[in-house]
């Protein structure tokens, strides 16, 4: 067992205890970050006069060789080592001897793992932001192409008012813009370097923590050594942001599933993002949307887990905090996969525009506009609301839409109606006269598209 702390102990750790304590099976993901942090650390040690330039050069040369050997497969990260830190250091010492033992000067595994986790998380935030940006670009394209694709808007899953597909998709565009902003905020808050905090109380060596932070592209060093090694706020924030992203993906997936159903037939999913049935040959199932919806709970569980782990931990570092890694790694992989697949699914789906418009017409989504028509002709709103309610009941009884009624039928219920009611209740008119910012009308939507265009250009 390759351990870095055996001097205090007179007997070897029980194998079961060792296995339970070890983290190499999952923190081996950190090998790049661990080596990068070590190179920055020894660079700072030499600049501070703690080791020689020659020792620095030998250590950095060997660390880069270890990195190359791991990536080529020549050197395997195995369970012989307790964690990724002992793997790197043990191999360094094996290759260059006593000089390698100077790598850990002024450093603890506590601040080392805190650094590795921040570096890894920071890298992954950049990747997730890129995936969210790709998703938003697809949404933006769908909006531009569907300014006149009419469909019903819903409340309580009941048809409410006519909107456009561009407007409906635009709601998700706003959600993912906020998600992108949250990821940026998390990156900015977490981007401070904990290396140099030691176990919890710093070190007597004259470390230049500003230099270390600069070498690793941090904004600066963390300001409290106890907080440095025990802070996992950024993990909690990230998992919270991931949970929100997954919630948004899940809501959209639910709508994709509904729209894809035989009853709606608003969309058709590409074969590449669908599956069939082993027994029913006619089936084309929206499995990707269903899996995204299902995996949302998995990410929620990661957030709940880390919150529960952290709630009772006194300062500073405690071994409980090792539990942050596996669940964060799993959540990162889940979110990245879900965003990428969801983006491909909506990028390739086809819209059944006629079915969308027909559904909007058959659901009395223009009833509010009928009431507005009466109000604009001097009828008090409460009376107009009641009159239109009677119109809807009449149409339900006759199994017709409001636009199928004759003018005589309109006038029998309220003599205020004139021939222009048919124009007022058309889908085009109902949508296109709504042009306050945020509404589905073309003037309002174009303003939003211009804003989104600039937003995407600056990502």
What keyword list fits this structure?
Fumarase C, Chain A, domain 2, 459 residues, 3 domains, 4 strands, two-stranded antiparallel ribbon, 19 helices, Fumarase C, Chain B, domain 1
Describe this structure in words.
By secondary structure, the chain is mostly helical. The chain is 62% helix and 4% strand. A two-stranded antiparallel sheet has the order 1-2. Strands 3-4 form a two-stranded antiparallel ribbon. A hairpin with a 2-residue loop joins strand 1 (150-155) and strand 2. Helix 11 (287-310) runs antiparallel to helix 12. It starts with 14 loop residues before the first helix and ends with a helix. The mean pLDDT is 94.
How are the strands ordered across the major sheet? 1-2
Give the low-confidence spans.
none
CATH architecture of the largest domain: Up-down Bundle
CATH class descriptor of the largest domain: Mainly Alpha
CATH T-level topology of the largest domain: Fumarase C, Chain A, domain 2
Distinct helical segment count: 19
Q: Give the N-to-C terminal Cα separation.
A: 47 Å
């Amino acid at each position: 067992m390759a351990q870095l702390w055996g001097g205090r102990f007179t007997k070897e750790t029980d194998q079961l205890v060792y296995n339970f304590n070890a983290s190499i099976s999952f923190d081996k993901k950190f090998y790049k970050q661990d080596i990068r942090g070590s190179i920055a650390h020894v660079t700072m040690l030499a600049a501070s006069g703690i080791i020689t330039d020659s020792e620095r050069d030998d250590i950095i040369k060997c660390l880069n060789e270890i990195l190359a050997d791991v990536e080529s497969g020549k050197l395997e990260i195995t369970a012989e080592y307790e964690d990724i830190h002992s793997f790197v250091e043990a191999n360094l010492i094996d290759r260059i001897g006593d000089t390698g033992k100077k790598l850990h000067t002024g450093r603890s595994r506590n601040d080392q793992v805190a650094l590795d986790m921040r570096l890894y998380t920071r890298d992954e935030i950049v990747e997730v932001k890129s995936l969210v940006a790709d998703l938003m670009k697809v949404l933006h394209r769908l909006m531009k192409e569907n300014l006149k694709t009419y469909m019903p808007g819903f409340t309580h899953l009941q048809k409410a008012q006519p909107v456009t597909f561009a407007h409906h998709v635009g709601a998700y565009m706003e959600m993912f813009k906020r998600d992108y902003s949250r990821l940026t905020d998390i990156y900015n808050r977490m981007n401070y370097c904990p290396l140099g905090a030691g176990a919890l109380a710093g070190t007597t060596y004259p470390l230049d923590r500003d230099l270390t932070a600069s070498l690793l592209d941090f904004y600066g060093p963390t300001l409290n050594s106890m907080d440095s090694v025990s802070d996992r706020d950024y993990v909690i924030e990230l998992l919270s942001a991931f949970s929100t992203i997954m919630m948004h993906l899940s809501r959209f997936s639910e709508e994709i599933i509904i729209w894809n159903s035989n009853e709606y037939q608003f969309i058709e999913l590409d074969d590449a993002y669908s599956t069939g049935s082993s027994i029913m040959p006619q089936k084309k199932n929206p499995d990707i949307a269903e899996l995204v919806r299902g995996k949302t709970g998995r990410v929620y569980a990661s957030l709940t887990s880390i919150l529960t782990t952290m709630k009772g931990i006194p300062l500073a570092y405690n071994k409980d905090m090792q539990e942050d890694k596996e669940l964060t790694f799993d959540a990162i992989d889940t979110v990245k996969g879900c965003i990428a697949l969801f983006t491909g699914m909506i990028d390739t789906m086809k819209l059944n525009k006629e079915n969308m418009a027909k559904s909007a017409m058959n659901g009395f989504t223009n009833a509010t506009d009928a009431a507005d028509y009466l109000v604009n002709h001097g009828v008090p709103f409460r009376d107009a609301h009641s009159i239109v309610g009677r119109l809807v009941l009449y149409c339900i009884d006759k199994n017709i839409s409001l636009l199928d009624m004759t003018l005589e039928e309109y006038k029998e219920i309220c003599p205020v109606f004139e021939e222009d009611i048919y124009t007022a209740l058309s889908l085009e008119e109902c949508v296109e006269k709504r042009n306050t910012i945020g509404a589905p009308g073309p003037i309002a939507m174009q303003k939003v598209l211009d804003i989104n265009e600039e937003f995407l250009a600056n990502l």
